[in-house]
TrEMBL record, chain A:
<keyword id="KW-0004">4Fe-4S</keyword>
<keyword id="KW-0411">Iron-sulfur</keyword>
<dbReference type="GO" id="GO:0005886">
    <property type="term" value="C:plasma membrane"/>
</dbReference>
<dbReference type="GO" id="GO:0016491">
    <property type="term" value="F:oxidoreductase activity"/>
</dbReference>
<dbReference type="InterPro" id="IPR051460">
    <property type="entry name" value="HdrC_iron-sulfur_subunit"/>
</dbReference>
<dbReference type="GO" id="GO:0051539">
    <property type="term" value="F:4 iron, 4 sulfur cluster binding"/>
</dbReference>
<dbReference type="GO" id="GO:0046872">
    <property type="term" value="F:metal ion binding"/>
</dbReference>
<keyword id="KW-0408">Iron</keyword>
<protein>
    <submittedName>
        <fullName>(Fe-S)-binding protein</fullName>
    </submittedName>
</protein>
Automatic annotation (TrEMBL), chain B:
<keyword id="KW-0411">Iron-sulfur</keyword>
<keyword id="KW-0560">Oxidoreductase</keyword>
<protein>
    <submittedName>
        <fullName>(Fe-S)-binding protein</fullName>
    </submittedName>
</protein>
<feature type="transmembrane region" description="Helical">
    <location>
        <begin position="109"/>
        <end position="129"/>
    </location>
</feature>
<dbReference type="InterPro" id="IPR036197">
    <property type="entry name" value="NarG-like_sf"/>
</dbReference>
<dbReference type="InterPro" id="IPR017900">
    <property type="entry name" value="4Fe4S_Fe_S_CS"/>
</dbReference>
<keyword id="KW-1133">Transmembrane helix</keyword>
<dbReference type="InterPro" id="IPR009051">
    <property type="entry name" value="Helical_ferredxn"/>
</dbReference>
<feature type="transmembrane region" description="Helical">
    <location>
        <begin position="6"/>
        <end position="24"/>
    </location>
</feature>
Length: 263, 445
């Protein structure tokens, strides 16, 4: 097992007069949600293992405002965005990585016209690059031959056309990747987007996450892989609703890689 | 008297085209009720999108069966319309098969029209079966009330009848062409008839006069039918055959996840955050009194003209609704209904303007509430499945978000859980009630 996590802040770097290679945007879920915090830590372990010079904003980070925007509150979104942009620009941030596709989409597509121009990547893209450039070697065989199905997050997939990075990273574990009938372009939402995460669903016949979990279970998976903290929560709840938590694990791609490498 | 048919034809043609132009003008006026939006950028990319998506049908084939059948009807429609040019010239000048002089090329043309006519007929019959016998789910959702269902079937009947008339016309024509002793042969021997030759036996017993009557009847019904169909477009979902082109051209070029930032809000937020701004300062001399902006949309006039164009373009195929996670789990939301409602309300506003000398008179109704309910809007997960599915670049999500903006920023009418979430963000920078100072605690847990 690894030593203590190294998580320097931008303020630390600034004090030393240095710039990290990338800013890790932890996001509200990654900071506060118990399940998502594990994903955050898994990703940090990967960054530490690959000797990536990264920093977080720590207490200077605030909600991107994405969820407020999707709920219709453009005021609150822009207030959050402009405050964050002030901080990010003050630190002269160039590149941002995040485990949350919603933050990813918002920072990448909606911050530029407000004055925040950064290269923004999703953690699955970042890990893919680490592997491709030889900075991270995936050698473990924990998941070799295991049936893993990947649930595409809407804001990584359809919203930003990234379908390959998560799959390429999964392939590095030599797992048996099985696709759901609805995948990539046709993937079904987990039900959390558009601020649904924070409210009860409207009246209907069933919950969206249960329907999506049924999609996943049809592939007879050992593991459902996710790339979004909200999808993770929704799929985990779906698995509980189907009483399958003993048979099927729901894990983020960062966790899969960290576990695989015994980090 | 010799020119009577030509004159009647010319009059019918002028009336039909005049009426169509009148409706197109109304259509353009209604679309222009929307807010202005700059879509003058990236002309080459836009042209490419239109060529690929509308002309090339690239997104139709994502559902292979419907895509294939649609391609047949689409190509058939374009090809057979070349024949309409000949029909119009013949009608106006009293000629018959004026392009017959093209010889072999003419044979090839008529031959391929016939093949397509048959293929279209078969495709349209399959479409009818899918709708009415197999009852594909997406054609039977709640918003498919009597008119949308009838409209779809009327279009199919129209096409069946037109294709049959075309083939009958050709069948009788070739019978007449080879009749021995046909006096003053107006019916030149021309064309090849790979399909309608099989219908010839039906007319074998006919003498010249009765054959001509049948041929003329089929000819007139065919062209009048086409002109009626042309004028039916405006009242029908079938308008997509024209509007799919501009709609794919003006469709968004941004990543689907990107939602526009409201400039009016930026101005206000920047003022709020700027300590040097004096909120009580008088407006500078000569500055125009600023009209307080309305945030979001409660009615069609608050949407952009591209969104209104999309509403008229929607052909109610329901691919969006059949992939919507909210709709699939029994919620009220249907992206197709959002588009249909927007169009129906826009038509209502247009009629209101017509009835009141060109000015809209408040009718106490609006798109939000009277057509689209809050429940529908709050069921959306913004997953973009509907946007991805639409074969002609319609974006129902953008309308849903504009209406949410109105609900939240103008009416503070968000569900209470969302209000809690938003006040958390306002107070402590996270959607949950945790202190911003605890944001890095995970490191040591």
């Amino acid at each position: 097992m690894s030593d203590e996590l190294k998580v320097p802040t931008m303020a630390d770097y600034m004090a030393e007069g240095k710039q990290p290679e990338v800013l890790f945007w932890v996001g509200s879920a990654g900071s506060f949600d118990d399940r998502a915090k594990k994903i955050t830590k898994a990703f940090v372990k990967i960054l530490n293992k690959a000797n990536v010079d990264f920093a977080v904003l720590g207490t200077e980070e605030s909600c991107t405002g994405d969820v407020a925007k999707r709920a219709g509150n453009e005021f609150l979104f822009q207030m959050q965005a402009l405050m964050n942009i002030e901080v990010l620009n003050a630190y002269e941030v160039k590149k941002i990585v995040t485990c949350d596709p919603h933050s990813f989409n918002c920072l990448k597509n909606e911050y530029p016209s407000l004055g925040g121009n950064y290269e923004v990547v999703h953690h699955t893209q970042f890990i893919q690059d680490l592997i491709a450039s030889g900075r991270l070697e995936v050698e473990g065989e924990l998941y070799k031959g295991k049936r893993i199905t990947f649930h595409d997050p809407c804001y990584l997939g359809r919203a930003n056309n990234e379908y390959d990075a998560p799959r390429t990273v999964l392939e590095s574990t030599k797992a048996n990747i099985v696709e759901m009938k609805r995948h990539k372009l046709n993937a079904l939402c987990c039900g959390a987007g558009g601020a649904q995460m924070f409210k009860e669903p409207e009246k209907g016949d069933m919950d969206i996450n249960v329907l999506r979990t049924e999609d996943a279970l049809k592939t007879k998976p050992n593991i459902i892989a996710t790339g979004c903290p909200y999808c993770n929560t929704m799929m985990t709840d779906g698995i509980k609703a189907k009483e399958k938590e003993k048979d099927v694990a729901v894990l983020d791609i960062a966790e899969l890689i960290a576990n695989n490498e015994n980090l | 008297m010799q020119y009577l048919p030509n004159m009647i034809f010319a009059i019918i043609l002028i009336i039909a085209i005049g009426f169509f132009v009148k409706n197109v003008k109304k259509l353009i006026r209604n679309i222009k009720l929307g807010l202005d939006v700059d879509v003058s950028d990236n002309k080459s990319q836009r042209l490419r999108n239109m060529t690929m998506i509308a002309f090339g049908q690239s997104k139709m084939v994502r559902r292979p069966i419907a895509g294939f059948l649609h391609a047949i009807v689409y190509v058939g429609f374009i090809v057979i319309n070349i024949e309409v040019i000949e029909i119009i010239i013949d009608g106006l000048f009293g000629t018959h098969r004026v392009f017959a002089f093209l010889g072999t090329f003419y044979d090839v043309l008529i031959g391929s029209f016939e093949v397509f006519a048959l293929l279209v007929l078969v495709a349209v019959i399959v479409f009818w079966i899918r709708r009415n016998i197999i009852k594909l789910k997406r054609f039977w959702k709640n918003e498919m009330t009597s008119w949308p269902k009838n409209d779809a079937n009327y279009i199919l009947y129209f096409e069946m009848v037109l294709m049959c008339l075309f083939l009958i016309m050709n069948a009788v024509d070739q019978t007449i062409q080879i009749m021995p002793g046909t006096p003053e042969n107006h019916y030149v021997e021309a064309g090849s008839y790979p399909i309608s030759q099989f219908l010839v036996p039906l007319f074998q017993g006919f003498n010249f006069e009765s054959a001509v009557i049948v041929e003329r009847a089929a000819w007139w019904l065919h062209i009048v039918g086409i002109l009626i169909f042309l004028n039916y477009l405006y009242y029908s979902k079938h308008l997509h055959i024209l509007l799919a082109f501009p709609n794919t051209y003006f469709g968004s070029l941004k990543p689907k996840g990107q939602v526009n930032n409201l400039e009016a809000v930026t101005k206000e937020v920047k003022m709020m955050m700027d300590p040097s701004v004096d909120p009580f300062a008088a407006a500078p001399e000569g500055a125009e009194e600023e009209v307080p902006a309305k945030f979001g949309a409660s009615d069609v006039q608050d949407l952009s003209w591209v969104q209104l164009l999309s509403a008229y373009t929607c052909t109610e195929c329901g691919r969006c609704t059949s992939s919507c996670p909210a709709n699939l789990t029994g919620k009220k939301l249907s992206p197709r209904k959002v588009m249909m409602d927007t169009r129906d309300r826009l038509e209502e506003v247009g009629k209101n303007i017509d009835a009141n000398n060109g000015v809209f008179k408040d009718d106490g109704k609006q798109l939000l509430g009277d057509y689209i309910s809050h429940e529908e809007l709050w069921a959306c997960t913004t997953c973009n499945a509907c946007v991805e599915e639409c074969p002609i670049s319609i974006n129902p999500l953008s309308i849903i978000l504009e209406m949410r903006r109105y609900l939240v920023m103008e009416q503070s009418a968000a569900p209470s859980e969302l209000n809690n979430m938003m006040s958390n963000i306002e107070n402590n920078g996270a959607p949950w009630p945790y202190n911003q100072m605890d944001r890095l605690n995970w490191k040591n847990e």
